[in-house]
Amino acid sequence: MAKNKMKEWLERASKEEALALADKVGTSLGVLRQIAGGYRTGGVASTNPDTAAAIEKAAKKFPQLPQLTRGDLCVACSKCEYFKGCKK
Question: Do residues 29 and 55 touch, judged by C-beta distance below 8 A?
Fold first, then answer.
């Protein structure tokens, strides 16, 4: 199974960067790890659209790491016609 982008991000980030991302999102590193691990989703990173948007925005503060989009983090967002249109 290919790694999802959130898992890749956390593996490449230092612990300080990961904690800073969690702080910017207003969550814990444990929650980010659950999202990355595909907790209850068979390995697919998935969270709600609001959290996905917050992670997307916060990840932009770390340009040296892979950039995350809400489509990488939320199944509903990845299927959204508006999100698909933005990727073009």
Answer: no
Cβ-based burial of 32 (10 A; exposed 0-12, middle 13-18, buried ≥19): buried
How does pLDDT run across 56-76, given as a tens digit for each residue? 999 999 999 999 999 889 888
What is the pTM for the complete model shown?
0.85
Burial of 75 (0-12, 13-18, 19+ CB in 10 A): middle
Question: What would the two tokens of residue 12 be?
Answer: 């490449």
Question: How many domains in the chain?
Answer: 1
Range of the domain at 13: 5-86
